[in-house]
Design brief:
Elements (H helix, E strand, L loop, with lengths): L1 H10 L2 H25 L8 E8 L4 H18 L9 E8 L4 H12 L6 E2 L4 H14 L3 E3 L15 E3 L4 H14 L4 E7 L2 H16 L3 E8 L7 H12 L5 E5 L2 H13 L8 E4 L2 H8 L5 H5 L5 E5 L5 H14 L7 H22 L6 E3 L1 H4 L12 E3 L2 H9 L2 E4 L2 E4 L10 E8 L2 E9 L3 E3 L45 E6 L9 E2 L6 E2 L1 H11 L7 E6 L8 H9 L5 E2 L7 H4 L3 E2 L4 E3 L1 E6 L1 E3 L12 H22 L10 H14 L12 H30 L2 E3 L5 H5 L5 E4 L4 H7 L7 E4 L2 H10 L8 E5 H8 L5 E4 L6 E3 L2 E2 L4 H16 L1 H10 L10 E2 L10 H37 L6 H13 L3 H36 L7
Parallel strand pairs: 1-2, 1-3, 3-4, 4-5, 6-7, 6-8, 8-9, 9-10, 18-21, 18-22, 27-34, 28-29, 28-30
Antiparallel strand pairs: 10-15, 11-12, 13-14, 15-16, 16-17, 19-20, 23-33, 24-32, 25-30, 25-31, 26-27
Family: Belongs to the glutamate-gated ion channel (TC 1.A.10.1) family.
Subcellular location: Membrane
Keywords: Glycoprotein, Ion channel, Ion transport, Ligand-gated ion channel, Membrane, Receptor, Signal, Transmembrane, Transmembrane helix, Transport
Length: about 950
């Protein structure tokens, strides 16, 4: 269809085209033949032709034409570049029309141009890039920023400016910097606008933000203020107040003018414009005040070009050329550098032996029955080599380092962030793909390692629309009369938390009061209506209610909604206003002291280990003392009694046997320390048992429940059911209970009578249940940590503001007062009684027993090493006395046993000393008795009676 329309324009000149084509072909053939005759493949032609296609009378085109002409002069005056070959640029006006742009490109294809600078428009670029691919002529655009002009689809299309992909990434990071979540995009509805907004949508999604509304405007010149007003009226009814404007200058100024008329440039609004606005501000003389008034507070992006001596010199030269009536914008600088890029690439092309030659396209010749004279267009044979040189170019231009990345984009993309204020504008920061947002030029960061941390992202203060210096909230409730639909569960139990007022759609309860108190703290009104959810016969599924937010039925959910993982995946929750978590409730029984209460401080395992260690330590001490201590010797029966008596008497520190050996004393000291700890623990535990009321339950917590096969109760609609299934409890064991009364009945019956062994529920419900049910208690620890919050759609700003309000309620005490109003109840008389704590188990004393066991082991080891040493000496002595080297095994065993059982000399000396002490004491006693008897006899003799 495109060539069909072109036929009308080209048919009138068909004969002239044929003549031109024949002449060009002859010239080309002559050049090829002369090259062949000279035998020098590196000879350069006198002239090399390059095309340029853009809109001359546009904001960008006016400055681009001057910049290209000046660049051509500079290239031709430079003796190093092209080395005598003159660069000629042929201009073609596209008039911002895709059709005329294509026609202009086709005209260039009939000439000997080796490259084309342009097009300016992304729409035109999409059309003529197919021609460039077919005829292998590179197109270098200094203004087409459409990110979908892919280097894979259009390999002969090179962008010598920055892609909108980076510009939209910069806008997304600005939005993230100010913590906005939703934006509205107003754009020109063509390839440039649609694809730019699509790139913005992707960039925002990466920041967990989104475009909430896209308002496209027709790209035709027939758009009126009324059309724009219809679009902006719809925008004004939206929730978001952050607006991104991506359009052409004429339409962009119309949108800002209408927005100013509608009051949409006032306080609370945020307007962010792409670089079309800075292009006008930079290249036009000071705009009239009425136009400047329509854009006060707007944030604008501008392609960043580093400051340099060459740039300042060219700017001074520009002012002289234009007389100050036409400013220099970034696109003019890119157009100037594009000419130098082409010149450097052509110079490298000639240095590599490239020649300018063209060949016929067989595909075009095969088209029959056409009057378009497509055969006049030919393929540039040196196109692949020239394209390669273009991509490998590396020089410093007015825009800074000019080099392509592997993705065929210019390196180091960066933008200035501009704030329109008064009669001008002010730069508030920079954005670069390397360092993000900063108040320093991007060049200062290239020598440092990249650091995109949030603390390094900075911008200067901004004056927003309405002359407001405070950051706008970025959203409001839509002024369309619509109220928020807040879903509220219809509970049939625990109505203190949420309950519906009969005959109305109003609700009351703890959760409702917290929500209303938080809403009253917000600096804006929140029009809302409560929407009941549930059948009124049983508690509804809270997970199903939360999912209705994503379906659009509810704008939020208020109630006793637990914040759990599967719900946070689909909605956002506020700050928790009540602590929650699953606990186990079970029946209990009182424990009295009884006749066997003295056995309860220790577990059966503990009692067994204590008994074994008493006997073990007694045996160890007997082994260590047997050879040297008479008190541990004697007949076997006496020794056995000694071991038992010694072991038991250490429990009361009443043992009378003295230890003589060092090893025995060491073992005894450690054992007495263990006994001291055991006695102290036993005494403390027994005292507690006999003086404090004890409650007992066979269930100790969730782990003991998992080990049994008994049924477990849960509240209807609670997430407890899913949680219990996830931790491995079969669904067949779970029993749904709908009210506190059913809790009490099921617990009292127990598993044997069709009830449940325990109930698992959230702590707030359980605390309310136990306030008037004194036969049950919480057992074990809370095994999940969560809270209750209000649910809203993903990235809802209301969730953030309500979280702040809930924190305020908590800090000023209002949250506690609301809790006391609804949930304060009289406590049971047994509240101070505790469920029986675990008995003292072996694990509590394992360290002590380990130390004692190790001490006994090493003492026995040392002792047996000594015995073995004596055994070896005794064996050698027997061999010498008998004169035989071989001794029977039984004899050696007898020798070993005799050494173990024989009495040591040390023991003899000790016993002798004790016998001497006893004999001395006996003699003293006898002497005293003798003296007493002689005195009595002397008193009784007749000689002493008188004279």
């Amino acid at each position: 269809m495109l060539f069909k329309h072109t036929r009308i324009l080209l048919s009138a000149h068909s004969s002239r085209m044929n003549a031109v084509w024949i002449l060009v072909s002859c010239l080309v053939c002559f050049g090829v033949c002369s090259d062949g005759l000279s035998g020098n493949g590196t000879s350069r032609p006198a002239v090399v032709n390059v095309g340029a296609i853009f809109t001359f009378d546009s904001t960008i085109g006016r400055v681009a034409k001057i910049a290209i002409q000046e660049a051509v002069k500079d290239v031709n005056s430079n003796s190093i570049v092209l080395q005598g070959t003159k660069l000629v640029v042929k201009f073609q006006n596209s008039n911002c029309s895709g059709f005329l742009g294509m026609v202009g490109a086709l005209k260039f294809m009939e000439t000997d141009v080796v490259a084309v600078i342009g097009p300016q428009s992304s729409v035109v670029a999409h059309t003529i890039s197919h021609v460039a691919n077919e005829l292998q002529v590179p197109f270098l655009s200094f203004a087409a920023t459409d990110p979908t002009l892919s280097s894979l689809q259009f390999p002969y299309f090179l962008r010598t400016t920055q892609s909108d992909l980076y510009q939209m990434t910069a806008i997304a990071e600005v939005i993230e910097f100010y913590a906005w979540k939703e934006v509205i995009a107003i754009f020109i509805d063509d390839d440039y606008g649609r694809n730019g907004v699509s790139a913005l949508d992707d960039a925002l999604a990466a920041k967990r933000c989104r475009i909430s509304y896209k308002a496209g405007i027709s790209p035709g010149g027939s758009v009126t203020r009324g059309d724009v007003m219809d679009v902006l009226v719809k925008v004004a009814l939206m929730e978001s107040r952050v607006i991104v404007l991506h359009a052409y200058p004429t339409l962009g100024f119309m949108v800002l003018s209408v927005a100013h008329y509608l009051g949409m440039m006032g306080d609370g609004y945020v307007w962010i414009s792409t670089d079309w606005l800075t292009t006008v501000l930079d290249s036009s003389p000071p705009l009239p005040q009425d136009i400047m008034d329509t854009m006060q507070g707007v944030l604008v992006l501008r392609q960043h070009t580093p400051d340099s001596e060459n740039k300042r010199a060219f700017s001074s030269r520009w002012n002289k050329l234009t007389g100050g009536f036409l400013g220099l914008n970034s696109y003019a600088l890119h157009a100037y550098d594009t000419v130098w890029l082409v010149a450097h690439a052509i110079d490298s092309f000639f240095n590599q032996g490239g020649t300018i030659s063209f060949s016929n396209d067989t595909k075009l010749q095969s088209v029959e029955g056409s009057n378009l004279h497509l055969e006049a267009m030919s393929i540039f044979d040196g196109g692949p080599l020239l394209l390669k040189n273009l991509l490998q170019s590396d020089f410093v231009g007015l825009t800074g380092p000019f080099k392509f990345s592997p993705e065929k984009c210019l390196i180091r993309p960066a933008y200035d962030i501009i704030n329109v204020i008064g009669t001008g504008f002010r730069r508030v920061g920079y954005w670069s793909n390397y360092s993000g947002l900063s108040i320093l030029p991007p060049e200062t960061f290239y020598s440092r390692p990249p650091n995109r941390s949030s603390t390094n992202q900075k911008l200067y203060s901004v004056v927003w629309p309405g002359n407001n210096v405070q950051k706008p909230r970025g959203w409001v409730f839509p002024n369309n009369g619509k109220q928020l639909r807040i879903g509220v569960p219809i509970r049939v139990s625990y109505r203190e938390f949420v309950s519906q007022i009969p005959g109305t759609n109003n609700f009351k309860g703890f959760c409702i009061d917290v929500f209303l108190a938080a809403v009253n703290l917000l600096p804006y009104a929140v029009p809302h209506q409560f929407v009941p959810y549930g059948n009124g016969h049983e508690n509804p599924s809270y997970t199903g209610m939360v999912k209705l937010i994503t379906a659009g039925k509810f704008d939020g959910v208020v109630g006793d909604i637990a914040i759990v993982t599967n719900r946070t995946r689909v909605v956002d929750f506020t700050q928790p206003y009540a602590a929650s978590g699953l606990v186990v409730v079970a029946p209990f029984q009182k424990l009295n002291s009884g006749g066997w209460a003295f056995l309860r401080p220790f577990s059966a395992q503990m009692w067994g280990v204590i008994t074994v260690f008493f006997l073990f330590v007694g045996m160890v001490v007997w082994i260590l003392e047997h050879r040297i201590n008479d008190e541990f010797r004697g007949p076997p029966k006496q020794q056995l009694i000694t071991i038992l008596w010694f072991s038991i008497s250490t429990l009361f520190f009443a043992h009378r046997e003295n230890t003589v050996s060092t090893l025995g004393r060491m073992v005894l000291i450690i054992w007495l320390f263990v006994v001291l700890i055991i006695n102290s623990s036993y005494t403390a535990s027994l005292t507690s048992i006999l003086t404090v009321q004890q409650l007992y339950s066979p269930i100790k917590g969730i782990e003991s429940l998992k080990e049994t096969d008994e049924p477990i109760g849960f509240q209807v609609g609670s997430f407890a059911e899913r949680y219990l299934e996830e931790i491995g409890i079969p669904k067949a064991r779970l029993v749904a209970l709908g009210s506190p009364e059913e809790y009490a009945t099921a617990l009292q019956r127990g598993p044997a009578k069709g009830g449940v062994a325990a109930v698992v529920d959230e702590r707030p419900y359980v605390e309310l249940f136990l306030s008037n049910q004194c036969k049950f208690r919480i057992v074990g620890q809370e095994f999940t940590k969560s809270g209750w919050g209000f649910a809203f759609p993903r990235d809802s700003p209301l969730a953030v503001d309500l979280s702040t309000a809930i924190l305020t309620l908590s800090e000023n005490g209002d949250l506690q007062r609301i809790h006391d109003k609804w949930l304060a109840r009289s406590a049971c008389s047994l509240d101070n009684a505790e469920l029986e704590s675990d008995r003292l188990h072996l694990r509590s004393f394992s360290g002590l027993f380990l130390i004692c066991g190790i001490a006994c082991f090493f003492a026995l080891l040392i002792y047996f090493i000594q015995i073995l040493h004596k055994f070896r000496r005794a064996s050698k002595a027997e061999v010498v006395s008998d004169g035989q080297n071989n001794t029977s095994r039984s004899k050696r065993l007898q020798t070993l046993l005799s050494l173990i059982d024989e009495k040591s000399d040390k023991s003899n000396r000790g016993s002798k000393r004790r016998k001497i002490d006893r004999s001395v004491s006996d003699d003293n006693i006898e002497n005293d008795l003798g003296r007493d008897s002689r005195w009595r006899e002397s008193q009784a003799s007749p000689q002493n009676e008188g004279h």
